[in-house]
Amino acid sequence: MTPPANAARNSNAARDIANVLHPYTDHRAHAVNGPLVIARGEGVRVWDDQGKEYIEAVAGLWCAALGFDSKRLADAAHKQMLKLPFYHAFGAKSHEPLIDLSEMLIERAPCPMSKVFYANSGSEANDTAIKMVWYYNNAIGRPEKKKVISRLKAYHGITIASGSLTGLPANHKMFDLPVSDRFIHVSTPHHYHGAKPGETEEDFATRLATELEETILREGPETVAAFFAEPVMGAGGVMLPPATYFEKIQAVLRKYDVLFVADEVICGFGRTGNYWGCQTYDITPDIITCAKALSASFLPISAIIINDKIFQGLADGSATIGTWGHGFTYSGHPVAAAVALETLKIYDELNIVEHVKTAGGYMQKLLRERFEGHPLVGEVRGIGMVGAIELVADKANHKNFEASAKVGPRLAKAGEAEGVILRGLANDTIAFSPPLIMTTDEIDQMVDRTARALDAVTVQLR
Ligand code: PLP
């Protein structure tokens, strides 16, 4: 491949183009444009290999909750590596970081929970949750109750099962997903695009709950096992549930004995202004999946937290077969668990939830003040420290630009020039999900830089 014009033959950019296959990248465009090589980080900022500084408006991938340096977390990993760099948890083996972390997660759960299982990523956590639901229903004598319902535009990961739950076209097209008719999608709970003219949030929520009930009845309640939902939908476009949505959805699920799996991979550990997104929206889940902020992303680790009802089913099943035949080599890896444990202690010491309430409230207000009146901005939305602006061609009719105009990607690119790393999602939505430690001064800078980038794109589009 020819390196981009500005890439010297042996530069990082040229070697990247020659050798790296990137996630979520147009490989042909990458061969022309090259990578942005990030060399180091500190606080809420990162620097590229040319020394240019950026504010990270999305904490990497919604995950670097404590920013891009922490001696304490580095020391926790180092100490654990010297003491016991690896041990597994198969066949009832255990170690202290695993026991301590599990105890802490059960203590912090938003409702009474029983056990914690570990994986390495959000996708694996959701895959595991699906397998748990299937195993559970087999164990309690309901082998036909296996279908799982999720929402269009949901993001639950990219493995074959979690990718089937995900409701975004790019994750399905050409991958032959969903993998089976056990995966069913219902409507996206996004009032801005989904509501009928004049429909209130409450009426919209009622209509969505009715759709869910009709879907369960159409499929047969005896075949529907679980409903998966992110409390705030993240990667699909930062969409908040309409008022009364989860209350009405949960009533339907209870009526037909359908389990609730809360995907807290983005929302967990403070993002929405409570420790869990479930607390923000009064959700009582049977299973919680979490990752990302669990270790502030210093090391990969995810967790699946289950209630006692699920545990009893899994325990009965394993007693019949002689094992719960599921586990990853690195389930509860001691170094990742030690780092996660230290991360949770840091959140407690920083009183991170209170900080998010204050700084997040400031961020929401500022985003609205700065962007709501902008001619290109259709909706500003968010809660706590997760937010978004959606760019539209026609503000009055909530009409997006043609995807081919690449307005969102243009803003992300203009953001780079201004020193802010932005993340463009579907429908030209730009997400803000900064490190949870971000201060109000840093929020000002992030928003100023974004505003300058938006002005540059507005000029380009004239
Ligand atoms: N669930 C949610 C809500 C996510 O946002 C993500 C990733 O962004 C995942 C699951 C998948 O996590 P991972 O990329 O670690 O597999």
UniProtKB/TrEMBL annotation:
The record's annotation in CDD domains points to:
OAT_like (cd00610)
Q: Which residues form a coiled coil?
A: none
- Origin: domain of life: Bacteria
Q: What is its cofactor?
A: pyridoxal 5'-phosphate
Asked if the keyword Transferase belongs to this entry, the reply reads yes
Q: What are the entry keywords? A: Aminotransferase, Pyridoxal phosphate, Transferase
A single Gene Ontology MF term assigned here is: transaminase activity
Q: Which InterPro entries match?
A: Aminotrans_3, Aminotrans_3_PPA_site, PyrdxlP-dep_Trfase, PyrdxlP-dep_Trfase_major, PyrdxlP-dep_Trfase_small
Which sequence ranges are marked TM in the entry? Answer: none
Does the keyword section mention Protease? no
| Family to which this protein belongs | Belongs to the class-III pyridoxal-phosphate-dependent aminotransferase family.
The molecule here is called Aspartate aminotransferase family protein
